[in-house]
Each structure stands twice: as structure tokens, then as C-alpha cells.
Amino acid sequence: MKILVAVKRVIDHNVKIRVKPDHSGVDLTNVKMALNPFCEIAVEQAVRLKEAGLASEVLVVSAGPKAVQEQLRTALALGADRALHIDTEVALESLAVAHLLKAVVEQEQPELVLLGKQAIDSDNNQTGQMLAALGGMPQGTFASALEVEQGQIKVTREIDGGLEILALALPAVITTDLRLNEPRYAKLPDIMKAKKKPLAVTTPDALGVDVSPRLRLKAVEPPPERQGGIKVASVAELVDKLKNVAKVIA
Amino acid sequence: MNFTFNEDDIAFQDAAHRVCAEVLKTNAARYDETREFCRESLDALGELGFWGMNLPEQYGGVDISSIAMSLAVEEIAYHCAATCSSLTAHFLATDSVLIGATEDQKQTLLPQCASGEKLGAFALTEPGAGSNPAEMRTRAVRTSDGWHLTGTKHYITNGAFADFLVVYAKTDPDQGHRGISAFLVDRHTAGLEFSSPEKTLGLRGSHIYEIGFDCVLPLDALMGEEGAGFATAMEVLDRGRVEVAAMSVGISRAARDASLAWSKERIVGGKPLCRHQGIQWMLAEMHAQLEAAKLVTYKAADARDSGQRFSLESAVAKLVASEAAAKVTDAAVQVHGGYGYISDLPIERYYRDARITRIFEGTSEIQKIIIGRAITA
Ligand SMILES: Cc1cc2nc3c(=O)[nH]c(=O)nc-3n(C[C@H](O)[C@H](O)[C@H](O)COP(=O)(O)OP(=O)(O)OC[C@H]3O[C@@H](n4cnc5c(N)ncnc54)[C@H](O)[C@@H]3O)c2cc1C
């Protein structure tokens, strides 16, 4: 079984982000970047399937500027076999990424595509779903457990109110939730070996995909500053404030 | 001149950051409070290959640049200086082997040191010989089928936890420092006596011991050539001082970062601390001292890879970075006020941990002697 894992370069989750003064986006200058944590879980899962003898090859793919090769190298150090960089300076929307991934799926014919359920920067939570729809593949999102059985895959999904277990025919698309696994740390010798693993570069053009934006970003606003609390005199006033000021009860 | 790190340097720094921010950070305060040996943190680093950072690939190491290694050491010290000290003591032992041992000895010992299976200790200092190790009194006398080692070493990091020790001893007392040889001593050799760990000011998770020797060693315990021990030790310390500099930078950076964060949050006189000029100047000085320390450290690391002698660069780096760490951690306590003096925050630990960097692997005074001699030669 060949596994394709899509990974995204995002701001490190420890960084306190700052909105640019002109509200055109988040300030990325001198900001530490990292592999999206949910993507890391996807890479880990793919590597575990390979180590268990259930997968033959793990291919990681990322779309973006040259810098995403850093995250591809990280994935290679964690155990992926080869990497594909789709080189573009365009700010990619989920649908564009889904189209790119579909083109890669057609070329590479993986039996399983693993993605993080969402990226911690834009929190869209849609690329996996879009890819499944475009490619006509079954999907299992928010996976907290996976089991590969003869020609199909059993996915435990975290849904509101409990767990749902699906059996998907392969090829399938799975997006990973937090509890699927605990990713390993990269070993220093593996970081060195990763440098020798193949990393191919392609472009949206070469894949025949138009990635021009379809949405217009109007403004990015930081969350409102926390205001100091107030003291209420009575329960009646509290209820009134909750209803009419905080609007958390009807 | 190029002041950017390359891809590999960043990858190694990142790898260190991950494990340190999760594992080492969690254990650091506990080690400090209970004086528990930093075994768990050391082993976490060992599993990932950090014990072999100083060794070439042919001996199981990872062949990384000294810059990358400095960045990793800095990251380790940022989160737990005690673990950093135990690891760099291991490097003193394995550097000794790398520089002074026979090919056979390297092949036998180093791969297990790189993989995290065998921890080393470097035993040079004695109660009567610290700054001037040539005055050591530990003796190794050749017998018909081996060596008889007698004497006392002290302040030996990792001591009782080490699997092997590199012990420096006089084989020919009439020859002065040319009569010093190094020996590879297995931890379980009969005739080794370990004290209980010393009660130290800082680095409480990294134990140091007095060790008494009265033991018989096999012939092949002699590391490399007879009489070459002192030269080996000096070369090892040239390398080690770059690591102490990196460790100092790591502690300083932790203290600077904590002070910046604190000064933005803490409101005094109606505004954040960092908006008071007196505090802002302190922060500026801390930052400038840290930046200067980084530069001399990276320069020494770069020189270490050049293949030329770098005793001067490493002495400068150690002197500047360790003195900076003292100032920066002192200022960090000041910025925090009373909170900096209480062990709920790591600030007072940084202050205590930083103190050793001006002492071990040659005190600041010894660095000045090295620098002074070199520039007036
Ligand atoms: C936590 C810790 C870990 C250590 N780990 C190790 C280890 O793993 N292996 C090991 O071998 N050793 C280790 N040491 C020992 C350490 O390297 C020595 O303590 C250090 O070199 C200083 O030697 P000393 O303590 O004998 O001080 P002394 O040599 O007695 O120095 C006392 C003072 O005199 C000054 N001084 C000495 N000579 C001169 C001079 N010529 N001119 C001007 N001033 C001078 C010194 O700078 C110092 O201020 C460790 C020590 C500590 C505290």
C-alpha cells in the first residue's frame, strides 16, 4: 500500500502571533515556522503503517514557496520515503490545494491519502473533504484510530456525542485528529539521512492546476483585547448581563 | 562573512528544541528541587542521537557542524542546564577518546557512547590540582601485566552514573605535564570508591563526585600513547569551552526571554514594567550582552571546524559568554523583583546555574591567562 501524506508549513504553535498594522494578514517576519501538528500526526501514522509492514511507501507532499522544503525534510527525517514539493508563491486556498493533491493522486495512485484534519493557521478544515469529493474517494475525517484490513480501512471518528466507526474501501482519504497518535521526535542520524532521500519539485502548471485565488481577503483582525471584569450586585443583574450583554443565554 | 545559519543547523536546532521544550523543561524544576540525577532527560536525548553530536559518523556519531552542535547545546541549556552539564561532561570523555585513543579503542567504545548506551566521565581535577592540572598526584604504575592506579579525583561530573571514566594520571612524575597519561576505566573496576554527590549551588540534577582510586587496570586501559595525556586534555578543553560558552548562551537566553515576557505582563505604577525606562535599559543591556555572547560562541564553533588551532577563540567565547550569563541572570532576578528570588519561577535557578560557567573547564581567570599569553606572544 502506497500512502500519500499532505503536509503544511505553519507558524509554530508556541508563537504568539501578531496581526500586521495594515490588517492585510499575520506578521511572518522572523517568526518560527513548523510542520502543522495535525500533519505531523498524519506523517507519524503513515510511518507506523509502514513499520507494521502494512504500507510499502510513504510519499509526502507540500505546496507553497521553497521554504516548505524544510517541513518536507522534517517529514523525511520522521520516516517518509520521498517528498514532492509543489512550488508556488501564490497564497493557496483549500480548494486549490485539493485540486493539486488530486493531480498528485492521479500521478502517484496511492491507496491511502492522509491529511491533518485542519491546519492551525487558517483552521479551515476542508482540504481533505474537498480532495475526497474531487477524487470520488471515500473519506474518514477526524480519525482517532485506524485499522487496515484486507482491502479496506476501519476508521474511528470523533464526532459530537461519541465515536463513529466507518469501514472505507481503498483508495480513501483520511484526516487525522489529535488523539490518533503521539508523533515521535526526529533522531539526529535520521535528519542526516533525510538529506539523501529524494525530494522532487513540480509546479501547479506542470500538474495542470489553476491555483489563482477565488476569495478576497478583506481584513485580518486580532481577537478583541480582554476587558477587565465587573462586579454585579445581585443574581437578577447577573442574569440580565448574561442575557443582554454577554448574550450567552436566551 | 555570513551571519545566517544553514538548513542543517536549523534542522538540528529544531530537533533539539522539540525534545527540550517537551521533556527537559518538564523535569528541570524537579531535578533542581530534589537533586535527582537527570537520567530521564539524558536518556531522552540519548535515544535521539544527541550523545553522539561531537563524533564523526564512522564512530556512530552524526557529523554535524560545531555551529549546529552549539545551537543544540544552547537549546538543551535553555531548558535544563543540569542535563546540559552532564551531556557536555560526556562529550569531554568521548572527545578524549576521539583525540587521544588508538583506533581499536575508538572502534570499541565510541559507537555505544554515541547511541546513548554508555555514559562517560572526564576525571582531570583533583583536590590539590584544579586550575593547574599539571600538578596532579594521581599515579599509574606499570606492573607486569597492567597498571596500578592510585589517587583521588574530585568534582567529577556523572561520576557514579558513568559507565566509564577517562582518568588522567602521572605515569612519569619526573616529566612534569609530559609525564601524564590517560586511562580508560570501567565503572565497575574493583578499587573505585565514589563519595556521595556534592551539594552544589546549581546544576543540582547533574551530580559531581569525589572518586578514590586504588585499582589494577589491564594493559590496554592506557588510552593511546603514554605521556600524551596532558596534550589530549588541553585539546579536549579547547573543544569543551565552546560548549560551555553555548551553555552560557542558553541560560542567558532563557533568562532574557523570561524577563521580557514578565516585564510586558507585570503592571507597576499603572504601566507594564517594560515601559519604565530603568527596566527597559536593563532589558536592552541583557539583550546586547546575549547577542555579543552568541557571536563569540558561534565564531569559536566555526573556528573549531576549521582544523586550525582555536584555543584563543574558545577561551574568548568561554570568558565572554560565561561572564555575560552572570550579568544577564543577575539582571533577570532584578527585573522580577521578589518573584525572581522565589523558586516558583525558574529565575533564581538560572542565576544559580549560570554561576558555574565562570568556574569549570578553566575559570575566567584561567581564560584570561590563555588569552593574555596568546596575544602577547
Ligand atoms: C559543578 C562542577 C563540575 C565539574 N566537573 C568536572 C569534571 O567533570 N571533570 C573535571 O576534571 N573537573 C570538573 N570540575 C572541576 C573544575 O574544572 C575546577 O573546579 C576548576 O577548574 C577550578 O579548579 P579549583 O576548583 O581547584 O580552583 P582553584 O584552582 O583552586 O582556583 C581558585 C581561584 O584561584 C584562581 N586562580 C587559579 N590559578 C590562578 C592563576 N594562575 N592566576 C590567577 N588566578 C588563579 C581561580 O580562577 C579561582 O578563582 C567541576 C567543578 C564543578 C564545580
UniProtKB/TrEMBL annotation, chain A:
Where is each Electron transfer flavoprotein alpha/beta-subunit N-terminal domain found? 23-211
Keywords for this entry?
Electron transport, Transport
Q: Does the keyword Transport apply?
A: yes
The highest taxon in the source lineage is Bacteria
What family is it from? Belongs to the ETF beta-subunit/FixA family.
Tell me what this protein is called.
Electron transfer flavoprotein subunit beta
UniProtKB/TrEMBL annotation, chain B:
- Acyl-CoA dehydrogenase/oxidase C-terminal domain sequence ranges: 227-375
The keyword Ribosomal protein appears for this protein: no
Q: Which Gene3D superfamilies match?
A: Acyl-CoA dehydrogenase/oxidase, N-terminal domain (1.10.540.10), Butyryl-CoA Dehydrogenase, subunit A, domain 2 (2.40.110.10), Butyryl-CoA Dehydrogenase, subunit A, domain 3 (1.20.140.10)
The superkingdom of the source organism is Bacteria
List cofactor names only: FAD
Segments passing through the bilayer: none
Residues covered by the Acyl-CoA oxidase/dehydrogenase middle domain: 121-214
Q: Which InterPro entries match?
A: Acyl-CoA_DH_CS, Acyl-CoA_Oxase/DH_mid-dom, Acyl-CoA_Oxase/DH_mid-dom_sf, AcylCo_DH-like_C, AcylCo_DH/oxidase_C, AcylCoA_DH/ox_N, AcylCoA_DH/ox_N_sf, AcylCoA_DH/oxidase_NM_dom_sf
Which key words are in the record?
A: FAD, Flavoprotein, Oxidoreductase
Domain called Acyl-CoA dehydrogenase/oxidase N-terminal: residue spans? 7-117
Would you identify the family this protein belongs to, as annotated?
Belongs to the acyl-CoA dehydrogenase family.
> What is the official name of this protein in its record?
Acyl-CoA dehydrogenase
